[in-house]
Amino acid sequence: MRMILKDGREILMSLYGLKLLKYYIPSVSIEHQTSIVEGFDGPIFNGTRFSGRIITAKFMYKAFDYHDFKLFVAEINALFARKEYFYIIFGAEPGKRWKVRLAESYSPNELLRKVGELEIKFICENIFAESVPTTMDLKEWDVDKWQWGMGIDWDEDLAYSFSSNNFSVKNYGNVLIDPRQHDLEIILRGSFSYVTITNHTTGDSYQYNGSLNGNDTLILRGVQTLKNYVSDFKNTNKRLLTLAAGNNNISISGGTVHSIAFNFRFLYL
């Protein structure tokens, strides 16, 4: 297992004398909002949402002597006890990372004098796994970034930059990408009197009411709209584009596309 800290530093557990024995990733928890209506049998379901997820990792450690064991405990406390989030990546699934925080306190279990086990629980800040690289890294197979089972067919066209007004964007994850919750950046350049971007798969339609010339750049970053890196959300229809799992058929009207790029990570249940 390895950790990636908020500042980008990467830490291997083996450098701390930890050997991963096993890990367990449960399914997402489900919460139903219900109400009771007189005269109806059973509850009325008003909505359903995914909630928390706890990942458990069990390690084995070795110490040379008692003093080394105490030093090990101090190092492990400093490693995991962080107020900010970090990412964990398991060697069996190198293409996926989990955004987590420490879930609860822990203490090493000393099985023998120099050997013991340590169980750490991580609470997921984002309940979905996300691909380690973004779509802008989809250039070649890399065993440290991708794996079989992530939905990618390398015989397909993996383009995420286009120069036409009609194209298809493939979301290889199995979770809808929603810019209100997930990283999604769309960068458009072209000549437009106005811009309407429609995802015919989801039914979403975003409109920018301003004009663009060949030197302008329109950026949709999360819930923001930036023209030439200056906020211009007021000139939109206040709607957002989401990307469904699978193919998303996109069309753009109001002018001519010179280039458009989609940058995001795939999400997995």
UniProtKB/TrEMBL annotation:
InterPro entries in the cross-refs: Dit_BPSPP_N, Siphovirus-type_tail_N
Domain (Siphovirus-type tail component RIFT-related): residue spans on this chain: 30-124
One Pfam family from the record: Sipho_tail
NCBIfam families linked to this entry: phi3626_gp14_N
Name listed for the protein in its UniProt record: Phage tail family protein
Organism from which the protein derives: Lysinibacillus pakistanensis
